[in-house]
Design a protein that fits this description.
Blueprint: H1 5-10, H2 31-40, H3 43-47, H4 50-64, E1 68-70, H5 77-84, E2 86-88, E3 94-96, H6 103-108, H7 114-117, H8 119-131, E4 137-143, H9 145-154, H10 162-170, H11 172-195, E5 200-205, H12 213-228, E6 237-241, H13 248-252, E7 258-260, H14 267-274, E8 279-284, H15 293-307, E9 313-317, H16 327-338
Parallel strand pairs: 1-4, 4-5, 5-6, 6-7, 7-8, 8-9
Antiparallel strand pairs: 2-3
Helix pairs in contact: 2-4, 4-8, 9-11, 10-11, 11-12, 15-16
The chain binds coproporphyrinogen III.
């Protein structure tokens, strides 16, 4: 079997064209996703139903011919498995009924065996693998310890993450205990997904970009490194921090094989500085897909020109597809990678 294009790019080999996929490529902008969501009874029910999860994972592969499928699931499911009681109420973001705040609550958290608590994740991966065309990669993922801690402590979305930052600064030993447990959970979860058939994995640190470089490097990066440790040598890993341009050196230093760039990062400069060491993914502004297909094509070609066919480039957005996106614009984006003969 030929190696998927995405894996060649993550190894920084020269490829005939850049591979392409999108964060949140399975989602509400697709009518076929909405149909499965309605039949299955909502987002969490879909995550826990391997047939439904596999089906929506495969939809964008069929529709657009992207080079990777990312498992339909969520970074918050491991926290639910630890007893925090996740809810998604219509019109709201995620919420936890039992957030973790006191020292006793942190110390009561236990890592768990993902094969026992999240068996539907492995089952969905096996089903996707069976339905995936040859040459298309399968991606697993997890939230990084800091982003999971943000949801665990705040109990949901937050602008300031004030509770989390209070814990970090005023009770460093409790913060470290929480990060340590989460790093173990994430490390096992990534390894479990690789064993169930994921070709590569993504570590999403959505909220790390709010930190200074110093706080990130000293208080957060060591735990991401710990989370990456069990999968080391098993499959390529990509790390992503939303709004993380200032953290780029530290993200590269985590030791993953690739770094996914936020759309505000200058990708040509990132290649100059780091392209010899890691693969770089990105990084069209997700809001650019709200323009016309012709404008999407213009902007994506400009991005590919800026990268200049350097090996180790994975074409993607700098964050997730917005739910208002016209699927025709995703098609135009994907087409730009397919028409490219890398230099
Ligand atoms: O296609 C894919 O990218 C795979 C599936 C995937 C989802 N969530 C599905 C989803 C992935 C990789 C995630 C990761 C995730 N989940 C992150 C990290 C990446 C990022 O976006 O920064 C975070 C922070 C979450 C937590 C989460 N899940 C939030 C904040 C929300 C609500 C936001 C929203 O768009 O409504 C979710 C729900 C969610 N996860 C949806 C999807 C498709 C929307 C659910 C729906 O209403 O159908």
């Amino acid at each position: 079997m030929s190696s998927p294009l995405l894996l060649s790019a993550l190894r920084r080999e020269r490829t005939p064209r850049p591979p392409v996929w999108l964060m949140r490529q399975a989602g509400r902008y697709l009518p076929e996703y909405q149909a499965v969501r309605q039949q299955t009874g909502g987002f969490l029910a879909m995550c826990r139903d391997p047939a439904a999860a596999a089906e929506v994972t495969l939809q964008p592969v069929r529709r657009f011919g992207v080079d990777a499928a990312i498992l339909f699931s969520d970074i918050l499911l491991p926290l639910d498995a630890m007893g925090l009681a996740l809810r998604f109420d219509e019109g709201h973001g995620p919420r936890f009924e039992k957030p973790v705040r006191s020292e006793a609550e942190v110390r009561a958290l236990r890592p768990f065996d993902p094969a026992e608590q999240l068996p539907y994740v492995g089952e969905a991966l096996r089903r996707v693998r069976a339905g995936l065309p040859e040459g298309t990669a399968l991606l697993g993922f997890a939230g990084a310890p800091f982003t999971l801690a943000a949801y665990a402590v705040e109990g949901g979305a937050s602008d300031s993450h004030a509770r989390l930052r209070q814990l970090m600064y005023r009770e460093p030993a409790v913060f470290d205990a929480l990060m340590d447990t989460l790093a173990t959970v994430v490390g096992w979860h990534l390894q479990y997904q690789i064993e169930a058939g994921a070709d590569a994995v993504v570590l999403f640190d959505t909220w790390a970009g709010g930190l200074t470089r110093e706080d990130y490097a000293q208080r957060v990066a060591p735990w991401s490194r710990k989370a990456l440790q069990p999968s080391s040598g098993l499959a390529p890993r990509l790390v992503f921090a939303r709004d993380g341009s200032h953290l780029l050196d530290d993200l590269v230093a985590l030791g993953a094989e690739g770094v996914a760039l936020d759309w505000r990062t200058d990708i040509a400069a990132a290649f100059e500085r780091h392209g010899g060491r890691v693969a770089l993914q990105g990084n069209l502004d997700p809001a650019a897909l709200l323009a016309t297909p012709a404008e999407v094509t213009r902007r994506t070609r400009a991005l590919l020109d800026a990268v200049g066919g350097r090996p180790g480039h994975v074409l993607a957005l700098g964050h997730g597809v917005l739910k208002e996106t016209d699927p025709e614009c995703v098609a135009a984006f994907v087409q730009c990678a397919k028409e490219r003969a890398a230099g």
